Amino acid sequence: MIIISANETLELISKQWCDLSDLKKLTGLGKNSTSKLRNEIRADLINKGYLLPSKLLPMNEVVNYLKINVAYLQKMSKDTNERKKVIESN
Fold first, then answer.
1. Can you tell me the distance from the alpha carbon of 28 to that of 26, in angstroms, rounded to the nearest whole number?
2. pLDDT tens for each residue of 57-88
3. Domain that holds residue 34
4. What's the number of domains the chain is made of?
5. Would you state the torsion angle of the CA atoms of residues 90, 8, 10, 14, taken in this order, to the nearest 10 degrees?
């Protein structure tokens, strides 16, 4: 399981579309579990009337579905960047 940093997560969720690789990074799941999750999200969106490109999901819907706390990630990213500046200035 690979855990990505707040900065990496924010960069990833800034994309318009989410593919299987992105979803795998966001969730830390294996390929099969990620595929099942993608299909679940896709079915939910299609039931809501979305028309989707093949194998892609709107990233904002993925963020909502996974309940990713963007404000918290931004705070953590800011704190990390400030700590790096302090370390570099010493």
1. 6
2. 999 999 999 999 999 999 998 877 676 666 77
3. 6-89
4. 1
5. 130
